[in-house]
Amino acid sequence: MNKAQLERNFQEIEAGLSKREAIEEANRCLYCYDAPCIQACPTGIDIPSFIKKIASENIKGSAKTIMLSNPVGASCSRVCPTEELCEEACVLNHSTKPIMIGNLQRYATDWAIQNEQTLFEAGNKNGKTVAIVGSGPAGLSAARELARMGYAVTIFEAEQEAGGLNTYGIVSFRLPQAVSHWEVNQVRRLNVEIRTNTRIGTDIPAQELLDGFDAVVLAIGMGRVPDLHIEGEELNGVHDAIEFVKQTKGNELPSEYAGKWMVVIGAGNTAIDAATCSVRLGAENVKILYRRTKEEMTAYDFEYKFAKQDSVEFRWLTAPKRIVGNGEGNVIGIECIKMELTEAGEDGRRRPVPVAGSEFVLPADGVIKAIGQVRHLELIEEFALAHKSGVVTVDLKTYQTSNPKVFACGDVVFGKGQGEAMVVTAAQQGKQTAYAIHEQLIKTAAETA
Ligand SMILES: Cc1cc2nc3c(=O)[nH]c(=O)nc-3n(C[C@H](O)[C@H](O)[C@H](O)COP(=O)(O)OP(=O)(O)OC[C@H]3O[C@@H](n4cnc5c(N)ncnc54)[C@H](O)[C@@H]3O)c2cc1C
Ligand code: SF4
To answer: Could you tell me if 362 and 263 are in contact, meaning their C-beta atoms sit under 8 angstroms apart?
Structure first.
């Protein structure tokens, strides 16, 4: 596969709406009073209002309405599972088909991106400082709202570029990096300092932030994919799904996967992204192995359909047992074992158990692990925060941690029955964190006045 073909494969798949299509779709909206779609959007965007502005060709106003409620609204228009959120709640579901809320949101925000709009201004300085660790959707949203309220905000980001998984994790053919960069720049323009290539806990100790700022927000997301703990995991050709996708988000797309047989382990959204990336990198055969069945799969339905369209094969009730090497350190296959489901465990999900004697080997040049993400335990403990297996314990209204000066939001608080790992929820939690910090610091200021 040549370079031009590779680049085409990673261009955004879905074309945006044309002006005529957007206006026609906007005119279908019933502009419901007490609209259920607003309730269904975790960031509470005033959906009828932004759609009405599209209909009256006030596109900047529309983009502003969206981004006011959701500082990463351009990304969300592409990555939200709309059929489970806003569009699912649309009253037109009962008669015809729901309004294409995500696509209209994309139409308005794309206009703002193409016309290089700056949508918000920083508030008058109030003399208070906040450090934010992590510049993903949660950190950026907290920063945007704090800056609008007059705080001097510094974001510390370990990576070379800001934006978190919107910049590095979600595949380019669904979310181009340029969209995430625009959202980051909207925040930068509010005089938020973003110190990239700066890993807290390594480059700067946690204590320095606790001593130097009025409040600290931990928005570090989750870490790498955990180990499988099976033989052969150290072989060349075994990848972490997040790192695998990340190499397709830079300027140079890797060419070494063309013609390869790839096996992805796991069936969440990350697994689907790794599998569809493999296909687009030219892999000849891509399989997803999952130890449970389609019913238990955590990937969104639209992601599953997308992978099927890309000819990804699903092997249900199949678990990896050993990665097979060629004696020179390279992967040549994966030994699997068939599973069956027994009674439900503590989490309510039926437990998979191996079927004795059902082992078989699949040929593979590469194995991609996509079985969840580990937690940034060391940093959480350096901040001395209460947590459950790396899920930071917070008050779910204020996102305050066990240290009153430290707040945590986004994927770092997801898990153990708490929250959801989605861009839109991280954005909402970031906003709520900002308002809680404001309330706390204003209260403290009033008490000490
Ligand atoms: C492959 C993949 C596909 C996904 N697809 C979707 C999707 O389609 N739709 C959807 O809604 N959600 C999707 N998600 C989930 C979504 O991306 C996350 O829920 C969301 O990004 C969480 O935001 P966050 O700000 O909490 O964390 P992140 O986006 O992970 O950002 C955390 C930031 O903190 C930085 N950081 C970590 N440690 C440190 C440190 N010590 N010092 C400084 N900085 C640090 C990281 O570098 C990172 O930039 C996907 C996730 C993955 C992995
Ligand atoms: S942010 Fe997501 S859930 Fe909310 S209206 Fe937009 S697409 Fe729907």
So the answer is: yes
- Ligand 2 binding residues, C-beta < 6 A: 41, 43, 45, 47, 70, 73, 76-77, 80, 82, 85-86, 101-102, 105, 424
Task: Tell which one of 70, 165, 240 to mutate to probe ligand 1, the residue whose CB is within 8 A of the most ligand atoms.
Answer: 165
For 225, the 3-state DSSP assignment is coil
In the chain, the percentage of residues whose pLDDT exceeds 70 is 100
Q: How far is CA 356 from the centre of its chain?
A: 38
Instruction: Tell how far the Cα of 103 is from the centroid of ligand 2, in angstroms.
Output: 10
d(CA 274, CA 283): 11
Domains of the chain, first to last:
15-114 (1.10.1060.10), 129-223+374-448 (3.50.50.60), 238-369 (3.50.50.60)
Confidence of residue 448 (pLDDT cuts 50, 70, 90): confident
Taking only the tens place, the pLDDT of each residue in 315-366 is 999 999 999 999 999 999 999 999 999 988 777 778 999 999 999 999 999 9
Q: Where are the beta strands (DSSP E) in 193-330?
A: 193-195, 215-218, 238-240, 261-265, 285-289, 313-315, 318-325
Could you tell me if the CB of 245 is within 6 A of ligand 1? yes
DSSP structural state of residue 16: P
Q: How far apart are CA 133 and CA 198, in angstroms?
A: 9
CA dihedral of 114, 410, 221, 156, whole degrees rounded to 10: 70
Helix axis angle, 101-114 relative to 19-28, nearest 10°? 140
Q: What confidence tier does 38 reach under pLDDT thresholds 50, 70, 90?
A: very high
